[in-house]
């Protein structure tokens, strides 16, 4: 089973805590031990935002700001690679072919951002599509997909499951509102819809939640299920160990 896990920078390294990074490395190693081919895309989080805001105040243009963000995602990716202790590619992949080659070498393929104008949400979806992943997991600071921004609307309702097209419909208005917090960005949602990738959006604060979701399909987030998709057979046969 091939899975791509997108780990938000604010989830992996909110305060550069080595224990948290090590816990994520443990979770990924558990997936590998249980027979998964694992690709990981790491976000920039709060550190990236601080660099970007500082550079914006200094007059940097949008492409320069994106490059700063990409650099920060790759720093976070290097932290995870260090914690994986030889089981991952030696340095963050800078493109999809490079990441796919790491998978072929039976390594955990770790990457950050790729190109200006594209978030790591979209990178994860494109990576999953490029390697025909069975599952794409977004480990975020949110606990799933809602019909409105739960930070702004007390009546927002979480979706237990939805189609990729419904995900696009939900994310689209959020992407237009300044300050709104979409669970994944619009381009990522469109790529998931185009490729028909089975996906999960969940609260990744506890790395074990990713293990439970990947190995058993057990989580409290949102399933994004393409039309005609059956529950993966590896969930029904997975060990509860």
From TrEMBL:
Chain intervals for the UniProt region annotation (Disordered): 221-241
GO biological process, one term: 'de novo' CTP biosynthetic process
Sequence intervals crossing the membrane: none
UniProt-annotated binding residues for ATP: 9-10, 45, 49, 140, 146, 149
EC number: 2.7.4.22
A GO term from the CC aspect: cytoplasm
Pathway in which this enzyme or protein is active: Pyrimidine metabolism; CTP biosynthesis via de novo pathway; UDP from UMP (UMPK route): step 1/1
Subcellular location: Cytoplasm
Reactions the enzyme catalyzes: UMP + ATP = UDP + ADP
Function: Catalyzes the reversible phosphorylation of UMP to UDP.
Protein name: Uridylate kinase
Organism: Halorubrum kocurii JCM 14978
Gene that this polypeptide is encoded by: pyrH
């Amino acid at each position: 089973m091939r899975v791509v896990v997108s780990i938000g920078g604010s989830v992996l390294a909110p305060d550069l805590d080595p224990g948290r990074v090590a816990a994520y490395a443990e979770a990924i190693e558990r997936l590998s031990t249980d027979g998964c081919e694992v690709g990981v895309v790491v976000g920039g989080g709060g550190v990236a935002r601080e660099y970007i805001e500082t550079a914006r105040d200094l007059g940097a243009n949008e492409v320069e700001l994106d490059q700063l963000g990409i650099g920060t995602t790759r720093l976070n990716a290097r932290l995870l690679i260090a914690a994986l202790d030889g089981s991952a590619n030696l340095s963050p992949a800078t493109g999809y072919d490079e990441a796919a080659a790491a998978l072929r070498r039976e390594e955990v393929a770790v990457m950050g951002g790729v190109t200006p104008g594209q978030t790591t949400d979209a990178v994860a979806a494109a990576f999953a599509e490029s390697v025909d992943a069975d599952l794409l997991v977004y480990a975020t600071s949110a606990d799933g997909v809602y019909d409105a921004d739960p930070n702004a609307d007390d009546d927002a309702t979480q979706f237990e499951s939805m189609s990729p097209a419904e995900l696009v419909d939900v994310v689209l208005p959020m992407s237009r509102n300044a300050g709104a917090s979409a669970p994944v960005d619009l381009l990522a949602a469109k790529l998931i819809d185009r490729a028909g990738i089975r996906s999960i959006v969940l609260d990744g604060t506890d790395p074990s939640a990713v293990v439970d979701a990947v190995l058993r399909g057990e989580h409290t987030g949102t399933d994004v299920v393409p039309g005609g998709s059956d529950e993966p057979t590896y969930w029904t046969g997975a060990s509860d160990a």
